[in-house]
Design a protein that fits this description.
By secondary structure, this protein is an alpha+beta fold. It is built from 6 helices and 12 strands. The protein folds into 3 domains: 47 residues, no CATH class; 98 residues, Outer membrane lipoprotein wza domain like (Outer membrane lipoprotein wza fold like, Roll), CATH 3.10.560.10; 85 residues, wza like domain (wza like fold, 2-Layer Sandwich), CATH 3.30.1950.10. The strands form 4 sheets. A 5-stranded mixed sheet has the order 7-6-12-9-10, with helices on one face. The protein has a 3-stranded antiparallel sheet with strand order 2-1-5, covered by helices on one side. A hairpin with a 3-residue loop joins strand 3 and strand 4. The radius of gyration is 28 Å and the shape is elongated. Keywords: Membrane, Signal, Transmembrane, Transmembrane helix.
Length: 256
Protein backbone atom coordinates (compact mmCIF):
# COMPACT_ATOMS: atom_id res chain seq x y z
CA UNK A 1 0.00 0.00 0.00
CA UNK A 2 1.53 3.30 -1.07
CA UNK A 3 1.40 6.48 0.98
CA UNK A 4 -1.43 8.01 -1.03
CA UNK A 5 -3.64 4.95 -0.61
CA UNK A 6 -2.88 4.91 3.11
CA UNK A 7 -3.96 8.53 3.50
CA UNK A 8 -7.19 7.89 1.59
CA UNK A 9 -7.97 4.89 3.80
CA UNK A 10 -7.29 6.92 6.92
CA UNK A 11 -9.55 9.70 5.65
CA UNK A 12 -12.35 7.20 4.94
CA UNK A 13 -12.01 5.65 8.39
CA UNK A 14 -12.14 9.04 10.10
CA UNK A 15 -15.23 10.00 8.09
CA UNK A 16 -17.02 6.82 9.15
CA UNK A 17 -16.23 7.50 12.80
CA UNK A 18 -17.71 10.98 12.52
CA UNK A 19 -20.98 9.75 11.03
CA UNK A 20 -23.78 9.46 13.54
CA UNK A 21 -26.14 6.51 13.25
CA UNK A 22 -28.77 7.66 15.74
CA UNK A 23 -32.32 6.95 14.62
CA UNK A 24 -35.69 8.43 15.51
CA UNK A 25 -36.56 5.50 17.76
CA UNK A 26 -33.62 6.40 19.99
CA UNK A 27 -34.50 10.08 20.31
CA UNK A 28 -38.21 10.90 19.91
CA UNK A 29 -40.59 10.92 22.88
CA UNK A 30 -44.04 9.25 22.88
CA UNK A 31 -43.50 7.73 19.44
CA UNK A 32 -46.70 5.66 19.36
CA UNK A 33 -48.97 8.24 20.97
CA UNK A 34 -51.45 8.11 18.07
CA UNK A 35 -52.23 4.49 18.89
CA UNK A 36 -53.61 5.50 22.30
CA UNK A 37 -56.49 7.46 20.79
CA UNK A 38 -58.12 10.36 22.59
CA UNK A 39 -58.40 9.75 26.30
CA UNK A 40 -61.56 11.55 27.42
CA UNK A 41 -60.87 10.85 31.11
CA UNK A 42 -58.53 13.18 32.94
CA UNK A 43 -55.94 11.31 34.95
CA UNK A 44 -56.64 11.92 38.62
CA UNK A 45 -53.54 12.07 40.77
CA UNK A 46 -52.99 13.02 44.39
CA UNK A 47 -49.67 12.65 46.18
CA UNK A 48 -49.61 10.51 49.30
CA UNK A 49 -48.21 12.09 52.41
CA UNK A 50 -44.85 10.67 53.47
CA UNK A 51 -42.51 10.69 56.42
CA UNK A 52 -40.65 14.02 56.78
CA UNK A 53 -43.25 15.92 54.75
CA UNK A 54 -43.61 19.47 56.01
CA UNK A 55 -47.26 20.55 56.06
CA UNK A 56 -49.14 23.80 56.32
CA UNK A 57 -52.55 23.20 57.92
CA UNK A 58 -54.99 26.08 58.36
CA UNK A 59 -58.40 25.64 59.96
CA UNK A 60 -61.24 27.98 58.94
CA UNK A 61 -64.86 28.26 60.16
CA UNK A 62 -67.86 30.58 60.21
CA UNK A 63 -66.74 31.75 63.64
CA UNK A 64 -63.04 32.61 63.18
CA UNK A 65 -62.42 33.04 66.91
CA UNK A 66 -63.07 29.32 67.40
CA UNK A 67 -60.19 28.41 65.07
CA UNK A 68 -57.54 30.32 67.05
CA UNK A 69 -56.42 27.29 69.13
CA UNK A 70 -55.89 25.29 65.91
CA UNK A 71 -53.94 28.01 64.12
CA UNK A 72 -50.98 28.62 66.39
CA UNK A 73 -49.57 31.15 66.01
CA UNK A 74 -52.66 32.99 64.82
CA UNK A 75 -52.47 34.11 61.18
CA UNK A 76 -53.77 37.66 60.77
CA UNK A 77 -54.73 39.24 57.47
CA UNK A 78 -53.40 38.02 54.18
CA UNK A 79 -50.20 36.04 53.87
CA UNK A 80 -48.00 35.00 51.01
CA UNK A 81 -46.40 31.60 50.62
CA UNK A 82 -42.65 32.08 50.42
CA UNK A 83 -39.45 30.16 50.99
CA UNK A 84 -39.51 30.75 54.76
CA UNK A 85 -43.26 30.26 55.17
CA UNK A 86 -43.36 33.27 57.50
CA UNK A 87 -46.24 33.32 59.96
CA UNK A 88 -47.49 29.84 59.09
CA UNK A 89 -47.52 27.05 61.64
CA UNK A 90 -45.90 24.03 60.06
CA UNK A 91 -46.15 20.35 60.96
CA UNK A 92 -43.50 17.73 60.23
CA UNK A 93 -44.67 14.15 59.77
CA UNK A 94 -42.45 12.14 62.11
CA UNK A 95 -40.77 8.76 61.56
CA UNK A 96 -43.95 7.01 62.70
CA UNK A 97 -46.22 8.96 60.34
CA UNK A 98 -47.80 11.28 62.95
CA UNK A 99 -48.08 15.03 63.46
CA UNK A 100 -48.85 16.79 66.73
CA UNK A 101 -51.91 18.93 65.95
CA UNK A 102 -53.15 21.59 68.41
CA UNK A 103 -56.06 20.50 70.65
CA UNK A 104 -56.48 17.22 68.74
CA UNK A 105 -53.07 15.77 69.66
CA UNK A 106 -51.25 13.10 67.66
CA UNK A 107 -52.87 12.17 64.37
CA UNK A 108 -51.44 9.85 61.71
CA UNK A 109 -51.31 11.27 58.18
CA UNK A 110 -48.50 9.36 56.45
CA UNK A 111 -49.77 7.11 53.67
CA UNK A 112 -52.92 9.17 53.10
CA UNK A 113 -53.67 11.18 50.01
CA UNK A 114 -54.14 14.90 50.46
CA UNK A 115 -57.96 14.63 50.32
CA UNK A 116 -57.94 11.71 52.76
CA UNK A 117 -55.80 13.69 55.18
CA UNK A 118 -58.14 16.69 54.92
CA UNK A 119 -61.15 14.47 55.66
CA UNK A 120 -59.40 12.92 58.67
CA UNK A 121 -58.49 16.33 60.07
CA UNK A 122 -62.01 17.65 59.51
CA UNK A 123 -63.46 14.70 61.41
CA UNK A 124 -61.09 15.33 64.32
CA UNK A 125 -61.74 19.09 64.45
CA UNK A 126 -65.55 18.67 64.15
CA UNK A 127 -65.60 17.65 67.79
CA UNK A 128 -64.75 21.26 68.63
CA UNK A 129 -65.96 23.33 65.65
CA UNK A 130 -69.04 23.07 63.44
CA UNK A 131 -68.33 22.61 59.72
CA UNK A 132 -64.59 23.37 59.76
CA UNK A 133 -62.64 23.87 56.55
CA UNK A 134 -59.11 22.49 56.30
CA UNK A 135 -56.50 23.97 53.96
CA UNK A 136 -53.55 21.55 53.73
CA UNK A 137 -50.42 21.99 51.63
CA UNK A 138 -47.14 20.13 51.31
CA UNK A 139 -44.47 22.79 51.70
CA UNK A 140 -41.36 20.75 50.85
CA UNK A 141 -42.64 19.09 47.66
CA UNK A 142 -39.62 18.65 45.42
CA UNK A 143 -38.18 16.29 42.81
CA UNK A 144 -34.59 15.74 41.73
CA UNK A 145 -33.38 15.14 38.16
CA UNK A 146 -29.80 13.92 37.62
CA UNK A 147 -27.64 12.51 34.85
CA UNK A 148 -27.77 13.36 31.14
CA UNK A 149 -29.88 16.54 31.35
CA UNK A 150 -28.85 20.12 30.67
CA UNK A 151 -29.57 21.47 34.18
CA UNK A 152 -29.48 18.70 36.81
CA UNK A 153 -30.71 19.56 40.30
CA UNK A 154 -33.59 19.57 42.76
CA UNK A 155 -36.73 21.50 41.87
CA UNK A 156 -39.36 22.77 44.29
CA UNK A 157 -42.91 22.13 43.10
CA UNK A 158 -45.66 24.52 44.17
CA UNK A 159 -48.62 22.72 42.59
CA UNK A 160 -48.13 19.33 44.33
CA UNK A 161 -48.55 17.69 40.93
CA UNK A 162 -45.87 17.26 38.28
CA UNK A 163 -45.36 14.80 35.45
CA UNK A 164 -42.08 13.12 34.57
CA UNK A 165 -41.97 15.09 31.30
CA UNK A 166 -42.49 18.37 33.16
CA UNK A 167 -39.66 17.53 35.56
CA UNK A 168 -37.36 16.74 32.63
CA UNK A 169 -38.37 20.05 31.06
CA UNK A 170 -37.44 21.93 34.25
CA UNK A 171 -34.03 20.25 34.05
CA UNK A 172 -33.57 21.66 30.55
CA UNK A 173 -34.50 18.42 28.71
CA UNK A 174 -32.29 15.40 28.07
CA UNK A 175 -29.03 15.83 26.25
CA UNK A 176 -28.52 13.94 23.00
CA UNK A 177 -26.58 11.39 25.05
CA UNK A 178 -29.42 10.56 27.47
CA UNK A 179 -31.07 7.11 27.30
CA UNK A 180 -34.73 7.81 26.78
CA UNK A 181 -35.88 4.19 27.01
CA UNK A 182 -34.39 3.38 30.40
CA UNK A 183 -34.95 6.28 32.81
CA UNK A 184 -34.67 5.34 36.47
CA UNK A 185 -37.22 6.72 38.96
CA UNK A 186 -36.22 6.20 42.59
CA UNK A 187 -39.24 6.45 44.88
CA UNK A 188 -39.90 5.91 48.56
CA UNK A 189 -43.13 4.03 49.14
CA UNK A 190 -44.38 2.92 52.56
CA UNK A 191 -40.94 3.49 54.01
CA UNK A 192 -39.15 1.41 51.35
CA UNK A 193 -37.08 2.57 48.39
CA UNK A 194 -38.24 1.34 44.98
CA UNK A 195 -36.29 1.47 41.71
CA UNK A 196 -38.37 1.73 38.57
CA UNK A 197 -37.49 1.88 34.86
CA UNK A 198 -39.46 4.10 32.50
CA UNK A 199 -39.38 4.28 28.69
CA UNK A 200 -40.52 7.73 27.61
CA UNK A 201 -40.17 6.86 23.92
CA UNK A 202 -43.36 4.78 24.33
CA UNK A 203 -46.60 6.67 24.91
CA UNK A 204 -48.14 3.99 27.15
CA UNK A 205 -45.97 5.18 30.02
CA UNK A 206 -48.61 7.90 30.44
CA UNK A 207 -50.78 5.25 32.12
CA UNK A 208 -47.99 4.06 34.43
CA UNK A 209 -47.61 4.98 38.13
CA UNK A 210 -44.59 7.06 37.16
CA UNK A 211 -46.20 9.49 34.76
CA UNK A 212 -46.85 11.68 37.80
CA UNK A 213 -43.94 12.03 40.19
CA UNK A 214 -44.28 11.85 43.95
CA UNK A 215 -42.55 14.27 46.29
CA UNK A 216 -38.85 13.51 46.78
CA UNK A 217 -38.68 11.28 43.69
CA UNK A 218 -35.24 11.10 42.09
CA UNK A 219 -35.07 10.82 38.29
CA UNK A 220 -31.79 9.47 36.92
CA UNK A 221 -31.04 9.66 33.18
CA UNK A 222 -28.31 7.23 32.14
CA UNK A 223 -25.79 7.99 29.37
CA UNK A 224 -26.12 6.09 26.09
CA UNK A 225 -23.37 3.99 24.47
CA UNK A 226 -22.05 6.94 22.48
CA UNK A 227 -21.36 8.94 25.64
CA UNK A 228 -19.89 5.93 27.44
CA UNK A 229 -17.57 5.08 24.54
CA UNK A 230 -16.43 8.68 24.15
CA UNK A 231 -15.60 8.86 27.86
CA UNK A 232 -13.31 5.84 27.46
CA UNK A 233 -11.38 7.43 24.60
CA UNK A 234 -11.24 10.88 26.16
CA UNK A 235 -12.97 14.25 25.83
CA UNK A 236 -10.54 15.51 23.16
CA UNK A 237 -11.15 12.66 20.71
CA UNK A 238 -13.39 14.72 18.43
CA UNK A 239 -10.77 17.46 18.12
CA UNK A 240 -8.04 14.91 17.36
CA UNK A 241 -10.13 13.11 14.73
CA UNK A 242 -11.06 16.42 13.09
CA UNK A 243 -7.40 17.43 12.96
CA UNK A 244 -6.42 14.09 11.39
CA UNK A 245 -9.21 14.44 8.85
CA UNK A 246 -8.00 17.92 7.88
CA UNK A 247 -4.40 16.71 7.69
CA UNK A 248 -5.42 13.79 5.50
CA UNK A 249 -7.28 16.10 3.13
CA UNK A 250 -4.26 18.38 2.81
CA UNK A 251 -1.89 15.46 2.17
CA UNK A 252 -4.16 13.99 -0.50
CA UNK A 253 -4.20 17.35 -2.31
CA UNK A 254 -0.42 17.72 -2.08
CA UNK A 255 0.32 14.17 -3.32
CA UNK A 256 -1.87 14.33 -6.39
Amino acid sequence: MNFKTFIKSLFLLVSLVLVSCASRKDIAYLQNVDSLGNNKETLNYEPKLQFDDLLSIIVSADQPELTIPFNMPQIQGNYQINENQDGIKTYLIDAYGFIEFPVVGKIKLAGLSRSEAVTKLQTAVKEYITNPTINLRILNYKVTVLGEVLKPGSFKINSERITLLEAISQAGDLTIYGKRDNILVIRESDGKMTYNRVDITQANFINSPFYYLSQNDVVLVEPNKTKINSSVIGPNVTTIISALSLLGTILIILTR
